[in-house]
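Exam revision sheet. Question 4 asks you to relate a sequence to its structure. Input first:
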Amino acid sequence: MVSMTHEGGPSSFMSREAIIAGPSYNRWLVVPAALCIHLCIGMAYGFSVFWLPMSKLIAAPAASCTGMGFIGMLTTTSCNWSVPAETHVFETFIAILGISAAIWGGWLEHAGPRKAGFIAALCWGGGMALGGLGVMWHQLWLFYLGTGVIGGIGQGLGYITPVSTLIKWFPDRRGMATGFAIMGYGGGAMVGAPLAVWLMKHFAHENVQGVWESMVILGLVYFVVMSIGAFSFRVAPTGWRPEGWTEADAAKANAMITNRHVHLERVIHTPQFWLIWLVLCLNVTAGIGVISMASPMLQDVFGPHLLANGGTGMSPEAQKAAIVAAAAGLVGLISLFNSLGRLFWASLSDKIGRKTTYFVFFVLGIALYVLLPTWGHMGIAALFVLSICIILTMYGGGFSTVPAYLADIFGTQMVGAIHGRLITAWSVAGIVGPMLIAGVRQYQLDHGVAHNLVYDRTLYIMAGLLFLGLICNALVKPVHDKHFMDEEDLARERTLQHDRSGGAAAASAARGQFGALGAVFWLAVGIPFLIGVWIALSKGAALF
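Answer key, structure tokens:
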């Protein structure tokens, strides 16, 4: 049946009005659709598996680009790229993620999740495949264009599309719903990184890893999986509510929750937006700094203490290899706790409120950052690792809780677009955090500070950043009445979504049973995720 736009013409298959849910739909089918997208774009956290193999593509002793500048490496075909030159692509697609989400967030609200999700699939899957061709032709600029720029646009659209959709389907469980989706982003590396490593080994030849083959295959797989997610989305009709739930009950239970809506163009004029922007930026800066240096930090602070009997009887080479393997276990645990923390803290925020949840993040985070140097001085690796894992649950929890925080404060009408602008905080933090921790570490090493002490000052700085976040969170109050849309503005905004559903249609929509289709869909995304969890736990076991 073809639905009609407000102008009276037939709607496009890709349009928002074509995917308004009918009576037989069940809202729990939106969650695995969201996970299809986030598990794919979450491979962003697993790109480190490519750096070393990419630096050894030309198998010749004299093939190093040592002494060549970054600009020269962009087009050279005669020598191997340096690892630092390659890793800037991570900063590129994280920066583009925030920029693209901010630019196209408003368009997403009108276009709908099917169109936005499919474009995200084209950009992330296609961009990754194009980056793989850049590796094959040994053109670093093409790798940056494909994976960094085009892939970054896919990251931005793919990140906010499921979140915007889920919040409107789960007004009664906003935190839990967004926690499920964003858990997928945190867990994407647990699934994608081992698969990429296997593919590189499978296509390896003449001691050169199959990097480009791995990237092209993953790009095609991600395009298909993300497209399945995009075409599975349905949107809730205007006025739809879960049975037995009302906005008035939610507002009565928590004064921070509004049942009105702030327009995207007005939101940047509210102090609440910038306070929450700082809350996210400061929380992410501290957490991403630890993520970026977790493995070398563990090796520097503990060294042989990670080995049984301090590595007695082992050769220096064997000690070094065993220490690196133990530190790699920490990276696996970080992925796991980063992912599971997104669901745990976001779900908890439904019970205790978003503002209280962030208070917990900052108070507990400050305590743990201050304690980390103590655990290092005392040589207690287990408590050091446990503290980092808890910190990473709150890093992930900050991402998954903030969309619900925005919906509480600004309403749900344009929450996807508002979220798109807010995650520019992530783009900033993704650059500042790693630069801060790496810069302070190098400065202290250059001035003779022992390796096991070089992170003390940095960790105290991170605690200070969290204290600033604590203050910002305390200052968040309900939005002033003057910023909310009136009924006329709200009606105008809704006409831009070409949604004339409501009334009886909204009351009867999405009352269907979960059924066998739902179970199959959940298993299809759940089994790969659980395999990733098992791999992460297996790697983490090396620490103990």
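Marking note for examiners. The first helix runs from residue 30 to 41.
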